Amino acid sequence: MPIFILRRLLALIPVVLVMSIVVFLIIYLIPGDPARVMLGDGADESTIQELREQMGLDYPLVEQYGRWMWHAIQGDLGRSFFLQQPVSTAIAEHLAPTLSLAILAQFIAVLIAIPLGVRAAVNRGGIADKVLNAYSLLGISVPGFLLSLFFVLIFAVKLRWLPVSGYVPLQDGLGTFLRYMFLPSLSIGIVMSSLTARIVKASMLEVLNEGFVKTAWSKGLHPNKIIYKHVFRNALIPVLTVIGGSFGTLVAGAAVIESIFNIPGLGQMLVHAVERRDYAVIQGMVLFIAIVYVAVNLIVDLMYAIVDPRIRLQ
Amino acid sequence: MTDSAWGERKQQARLKRMIQSKRVRRFTANRTAVIGGWLMLLLISASLLTPWLARFEPQAVDVIQRLKPPSLTHYFGTDNLGRDVFSRTLSGMGISIQVGLTVAIISSTAGLAIGLYSAYYRRLDQVLMRIMDGIFAFPAVLLAMAMMAALGPNVSNLIICLSIVFIPAVARIVRSSALVVKEQTYIEAMRAIGASRARIVWLHIMPGTLPALIVQGSFVFAESIIVEAALSFLGAGIPAPMPSLGNLLSEGKAFIYNSWWMTLFPGFALIICVLAMNWFGDGLRDMLDPYGKTKRSRKTRKRSGSAQSAS
Amino acid sequence: MANQSLLEIQSLRTSFHTEAGIVSAVDGISLKIGAGEIVGVVGESGCGKSVTAQSILRLLDEKALTSYEGEVRFNGVDLLKLSQRQMRGVRGNDISMIFQDPLSSLNPLLTIGEQITETIRSHRKTSKKAALLEAIGLLQLTGIPSPERRVYEYPHQLSGGMRQRVMIAIALACEPKLLIADEPTTALDVTIQAQIMDLLVKLNKELGMSVLLITHDLGVVAEVCHKVAVMYAGQIVETADVATLFSNSQHPYTAGLLHSIPHIDRDRSKPLEAVRGFVPALHQLPKGCRFAPRCLYAEDQCLSDMPELEAKPGISSMARCWHSEKLQREEA
C-alpha cells in the first residue's frame, strides 16, 4: 500500500508542475510591466520599483519561477500588496467559509445522487431512470449560480423563508449557520449531484453484470442487501473519483456563488483580487487550488485502498 | 408467464419499455439532435433579428420607465435605467452565442491539431498531454478568471482565455479516438506504401476523429456560454455596458428584491441556449456513436476524474 | 427409478424477449433428480444447459426479460409459482449453486468469512461469531487448509481452485438438498478440476446431497454422474443412466459427442471426429429435428417433423430421434 500511494503521488507531480508553470506564467500575459499595471497610471516610479523588487520581476524568468516555487514549497505564497499581509495568511482567513460550503454542497450532492443513481440503475427505464435523465440534463444546462439566483428569488425574496445573503460562522450557532448556508450549498449541491448520479448509475450498471451479483442472488439474499452491500460497494470507486474531482472544483468554482451570497470565502477573495489586479493573491490562490486538487486526489486514492482490499493488500 | 406471483403485468410493461427504448433510441437520438439544432437556429435568428423583434434599443435609457414589470410594451419589463429587458436579453443571447461559437471553433481547431499530433507522435504525446492534463486540472472558471485578470476584460481577451481553457477537453477526446483509428490496418498500409505523415494524419486519421470532435465541440459551446456568463457576472468577462447574459444577471442581482424579471428572463435565456446545445450534442453523440455510452462508462472507471465546473 | 424425485422439471420453457423477438433458450425440458443422485447435463456451449440451471433458481428474473413456462417441482412445490420472497427462502437454503468462474463469482471486496456467513445469517438466526465458526467448519469440509486464517482473507489472495472450494463452502452453508454446479471446473487447471470433482462426489456421498452437474465434458460425466441428459439447441435429445448412454447411445448427437472424445489408444493417423456443422441460432431453428442439418442419418422426415423424446425399446434411455434403431445397427 505505501508503494501504491507513492506511485499515485509520482503520477501527480507532472500535473502539479504544469499547473504551477501555468499559474506562474499568467502574470506574463499582462501587456507591459505588471507592476505598473497593478499600481495604475498615477503611481510614482519608486513605488513601482519597490513592487518590482517585491515581485522579483528583475530576475530572469527561470530564476523567478525557481524562487517562486521554492518559496511556495515552504508555504510562502508571497505578499499581497493591497491586503498588506502574506497571501498564505489571507487564504487561511478565507478558507473556513469556502470549506464549509464545499462540504455541505458535497453532502447534499451525495445525498441526492446515490439513491437516485442506484434506483435508476436497478430499475432501468423506470421512473427513477427517467427522472435521472431529465435531472442530469438540467444539471448540465443550469449553472449553479443561476440556480442560486432563482432560489434567492423564490425562497428569500418571495417566501422570505431564508436570508438573501450573508455568512455566519459555525461558532455562532449551528442553526443560523445552516440557515445562511442552505441556499448556496443547495444550488451547488444540486448541480453536482446530477453529474454524480449519472456516474453512480453507469458504474452500478457495469457491476450489475458481474458474476458475484448472480452468486448473491443464488444465496437468497434480500435485494436491498445485494444492491447496497454487493453492487454499490463495488460501484463506489468511479463514484469516489468523481466526488474527489468535483470537490477540488468546488473550492474554486464556488467563486460566483460566494459573490452572490456575499460569503467571505476564497472565491470572493479571488474576485476582489481580480478587480484590484492583485497578482500575488491570484497566483497564490490558483496554486493553492492546485495543491487542494492534488491533496483531494491523494485522499481519493487512500479511499480506494479502504474500499478495495486488492489495492490495500498490494 | 405462468403466474401472477411475480408481477406479470410489471414484467410486460418493463419488456415493452426496453424493446421500445432500444428500437427507438437511434430515432430519438436523431430527434433530440434535430430539436436542439433547430432551437439553436431559432435563438440565433432571434438574436440577429433583435432590431425588428424588439421595440426598443438594447442600450436606450429611459429613466422615467425604470424598473417596470413586464407589460405589453416591455415584454420582459425594464431595468434600473429603464432599458428594455426583452431587447437586452435577445442581444445578450446573441453575444453569448457569438462568444460560445467562436470559442468552440478555436478550441476545436487547436484541440484537433494537438490531439492528432500527440496521438501520432509518441514523444510529443508525453509533453503535450502532460500540459493538457495540467490545464485540465484547473477549474474552468478559475483559470479563465486568472487569465482575464492579467489580460484585462474585453471580448477578444475573453475568447482567447476561454479557448485556452477548453482546448484540453477537445484534445483529450480527439487523441483517444485518433489512437483507435491509428491502429486500423489501413493506416498501417498507408505507412507501408510510404504516404507522407501529414497526409496520413490529416487525410486519413483526422476524418475518423470528426464525430467525436463535433460532439465535444458542441459541449464546449454549451460550457463556454456558462463560463462566459459566470465571468461576466463577476465583472471579469464582457465589460459592463454590453448586454451579455452574465452582465444582465449581475444587474438583476442588484435589484433582486423588487425586480424579479431582471433575473428570471435572462436566466431562462441562458438555460435555453445551453440546453439547446446540450441536446444537439447529446443527440449527435447517440447518433454518431451508439455505443458511446458503454465506452464512456469504461473510461470513467479508469479515473478520468472529469472535472466539470461547479460554477 | 421408483424413488420420489427431489426435483422434477416438467416441460420447462425459458424465453427471453429480445429485439429479434421471443427466443426460447430452453424449450420444453423435462428432467428428474432423485435424492442423493448426481445428474449431469451435457451439451455444447449455447445449448441452453446454463439457462436450465439458472431457471431452476429463477436467477434470470432480475436480468433480461425472461418468462418461464412449465413446472419446476422441488419436493412437490412448483418453484415457478413462488413469490420472490418465498423464492429467496429456497435459494442458498434448499438449493444452492456454484458457477463457472470462481474469481468473478466471489465479491472482491468482502472477506471469505463474510461471504459465507451472510448466507448462513440470511436463512437462519445465529450470531456473527457462531456463523463464523460454522464458516470455518465449512472451509475445513471443503478441504481448505488453515481455514481459521482463510476466513479473514479476500478472494484475490486465493488460487483458482481454492476459490471454487470457497464457492462450494458458501453453497453448502445451509445444508442444501440440491447443489447445482454450472461448469464448476471449466475455468480451472486440469489437476484442480479432478480435485474439485472428487470433492463434489465426496460431499454427495457424505451429505446425501443431490447434485445437478452442468458440463460439456463427457469424461467428467462418465466418472461422477449417475444419470445424464444430453442437450441440443434448447432441448434434451437423450437421457439415460450413464452406463447405458456410453455403451448404447440412442441419438446421433450423443454418438457424435462420444466419438469426438480422444481415446488414449486411438489410431492417430485418422483425424479426431468432430460433430460437423454449427449449433443453429435460437431464432432460426430448423423446423423438424433440430439436429437434422448436422446429422449423418437425417432423412426427409427428420427435416419436416420434430421427433418426441420417447423411451426406446429394450433399453432404459429416452431419445429424441426417428432413427435410433438405424443408429444402433451402424454403431454395432
Break the fold down into its secondary structure elements and pairings.
The complex is a heterotrimer of chains A (314), B (311) and C (332).
Chain A: H1 2-26, H2 34-39, H3 45-55, H4 61-73, E1 79-80, E2 85-86, H5 87-122, H6 127-141, H7 144-158, H8 174-208, H9 211-218, H10 223-253, H11 255-261, H12 266-276, H13 279-307, H14 309-312
Antiparallel strand pairs in A: 1-2
Helix pairs in contact in A: 1-13, 5-6, 5-8, 5-10, 5-13, 6-8, 7-8, 8-10, 9-10, 10-13, 11-12, 12-13
Chain B: H1 8-48, H2 50-53, H3 85-120, H4 122-137, H5 140-151, H6 155-182, H7 185-192, H8 197-233, H9 245-254, H10 261-288, H11 292-301
Helix pairs in contact in B: 1-3, 1-10, 3-4, 3-6, 3-8, 3-9, 3-10, 4-6, 5-6, 6-8, 8-9, 8-10, 9-10
Chain C: E1 5-18, E2 21-34, E3 38-42, H1 49-56, E4 66-74, E5 77-78, H2 84-90, E6 95-98, H3 102-105, H4 112-123, H5 128-141, H6 147-150, H7 160-172, E7 178-182, H8 190-207, E8 210-215, H9 218-224, E9 227-232, E10 235-241, H10 242-247, H11 252-259, H12 300-304, E11 310-311, E12 318-319, H13 324-331
Parallel strand pairs in C: 3-8, 3-9, 6-7, 7-8
Antiparallel strand pairs in C: 1-2, 1-4, 4-5, 9-10, 10-12, 11-12
Please outline what is shown here.
Chain B is mainly alpha-helical. Chain B has helices spanning 8-48, 50-53, 85-120, 122-137, 140-151, 155-182, 185-192, 197-233, 245-254, 261-288, 292-301. Chain C has an eight-stranded mixed β-sheet with strand order 6-7-8-3-9-10-12-11, sandwiched between helices. Chain C has a four-stranded antiparallel β-sheet with strand order 2-1-4-5.
